[in-house]
Amino acid sequence: MKTVCGWLWLVGLGLGACSSPSGPAADEAAETYARRREVSAPPTRRGRILDRHDSVLVDTRLSYLLAVPQRPGLDSATAVALNLLLGWPDSTLARRLAEARPYPGARSPGPIQLVLTPAEAEAVRSHQAEWPELALAEAVQRTYTVRTAAPVLGYQAANAQPFINQIIRYRRGRFYRLRNGGVETYYNGLLSGHRGYLHPLVDAGGQRHGSWAPDTAFQEGQDLHLALDAQLQAYAESLLGGRKGYLVALDPRTGEILCSVSAPTYAPAALTSPDQAGVRRQLLEDEDLPLLNRPAVLANPPGSVFKLVNAAIALQLGAIEPSTGFPCDQSLISCVHHHPAARSLTMGLQYSCNPYFYQTMRALIDHVPDSLVADTVAARHANLAAWQRYAQSFGLDTLLGVDLPREQAGFLPTPAYYDKARHTRNWRFRSIYSLSVGQGEINLTGLQMANMVAIIANRGWYYTPHFVRGVGTGGPLPRFLVKHHTLVDSANLEALVPGMLAVMQRGGTASASSLADVGIAIAGKTGTVQNDEGDDHATFVAFAPARNPKIAVAVYLENAGFGATAAAPCAALVIEKYLRGSIAPRRKRWERRMQYRGRSYELEHRLGRKRPPPAPVVPVPAPVAVPVAAPEGR
């Protein structure tokens, strides 16, 4: 019998069958069939992105583009008339034309395209005869319905090629850090869907004889249902505005991220809209790098909020007990305000006493077990290694696995790190004591800080933080349903809660941000991170309600001063907004002041000027100055 070879090419793929007769007659006949791959159906739509309340945030819709000629340009009278026709203020057309140019004075070969709303497009269409120099076109484009959550929503790479080209041109060294496609990129395959394929066996006459492989099912583009609360996101962004920093809030019970603010903020359409080239250039050239997704890619020293982790590990390893007290010995490390002696862990947290946690960490690192009594160097190495291992179980010094591109891992030092950095194995606690107050070599991302406080809220477990709570009609990706546990016992995490509650009560470092008047018990911890290059950074972490946590928050404001007066009010307002839906009248002044500050920073940002550091938001007694001998404040 002759050898039969069949080759068929379809949809750009070459799939063939070539065989010689062997075996039984039936098998021999089957081997003469050619393999074919046929497209059964292509996907017809890209999935939408919705928030937790099913409000559409991103969709593929018909958009309208107005082509404005550059040569000759519109005269002033014509520009005024066009502004009037479109219902714009007199300067709007000139501003939008400037925003559409990649740099001042740039001229492209063709007209400038401006994106119009349906109402504006209808106004132009109804007067088209009066404006022969203008051309109105329609295009189906990816459309954002909100001006918030830009780093989370992201973009399709195909829609953002002009932006990506600008990144390469302006910020070559930071290309990968600035390129962040958000959930649009991370879930691109699910949003796009995929074609269906048939795999028939075909004889020389074109007749089909079964299949050579299982058929591939057609899949339409799937909608993404985010955990994000669009209203809470917009509110949190209004509080931070043009300031540098982040705010992350998540539901500790599920790991769902309720809002994630990276400030300075910008509109998501700025990276893909054809009339935003000038805006993209400003964002790329801005020295504050607003395009960085700060909660995911920037790792910073956490400051005093890390005392929570240090205390939990010290309890677990037996270095202290909840009733352990230490004197406020400022010869060891400075404490920026006077307070009563911390006679217990609760009081140490309440006052954020630096000497208390210095001595706590020293008891942990310098502990010498009987087995290593003759080798204190080995004992310190073993103790620091244990500290690092327990701290890492809080999701630190590792990628959490959040569903966004380019997440960073942060850093926790190891004994080997200090051996290399100190050029000796014989380093002592005094050379690494900054770890006790969350500074030195410790670096955490915003997502890790929020997850850290969520673990304490849950007394020892967490789900990986994630933005998408449902794909299509299903739930999140399976890995977001896996519960993770820390190495610290729940009893030792429970021992932190009284101190975190005391932080928000009279005498605590954040008592002015208490929500007790509306019946919400917040468990929180303030922090101030020393910054050698300028004003200190303010941090705060919290969860509420303390006994039935529904929200966990982490705030980090660069160059903002004390965490108690800058970061804590932001977190308290977001917690109240989420749990109650509104802000109590007595805190409206906070709200207005912080929103004004965010707007004024944003305005100064646009004008290219820098403001002096702000005054505290909440009128609290000024701290008593003490000579600073070491990093960290309250």
UniProtKB/TrEMBL annotation:
<feature type="domain" description="Penicillin-binding protein dimerisation">
    <location>
        <begin position="44"/>
        <end position="207"/>
    </location>
</feature>
<dbReference type="GO" id="GO:0008658">
    <property type="term" value="F:penicillin binding"/>
</dbReference>
<dbReference type="InterPro" id="IPR036138">
    <property type="entry name" value="PBP_dimer_sf"/>
</dbReference>
<dbReference type="InterPro" id="IPR050515">
    <property type="entry name" value="Beta-lactam/transpept"/>
</dbReference>
<keyword id="KW-0645">Protease</keyword>
<feature type="signal peptide">
    <location>
        <begin position="1"/>
        <end position="25"/>
    </location>
</feature>
<dbReference type="InterPro" id="IPR001460">
    <property type="entry name" value="PCN-bd_Tpept"/>
</dbReference>
<dbReference type="GO" id="GO:0005886">
    <property type="term" value="C:plasma membrane"/>
</dbReference>
<keyword id="KW-0732">Signal</keyword>
<keyword id="KW-0378">Hydrolase</keyword>
<dbReference type="GO" id="GO:0071555">
    <property type="term" value="P:cell wall organization"/>
</dbReference>
<dbReference type="GO" id="GO:0004180">
    <property type="term" value="F:carboxypeptidase activity"/>
</dbReference>
<feature type="domain" description="Penicillin-binding protein transpeptidase">
    <location>
        <begin position="245"/>
        <end position="572"/>
    </location>
</feature>
<dbReference type="InterPro" id="IPR005311">
    <property type="entry name" value="PBP_dimer"/>
</dbReference>
<dbReference type="Pfam" id="PF00905">
    <property type="entry name" value="Transpeptidase"/>
</dbReference>
<dbReference type="InterPro" id="IPR012338">
    <property type="entry name" value="Beta-lactam/transpept-like"/>
</dbReference>
<protein>
    <recommendedName>
        <fullName>Peptidoglycan glycosyltransferase</fullName>
    </recommendedName>
</protein>
<dbReference type="Pfam" id="PF03717">
    <property type="entry name" value="PBP_dimer"/>
</dbReference>
<keyword id="KW-0472">Membrane</keyword>
<keyword id="KW-0121">Carboxypeptidase</keyword>
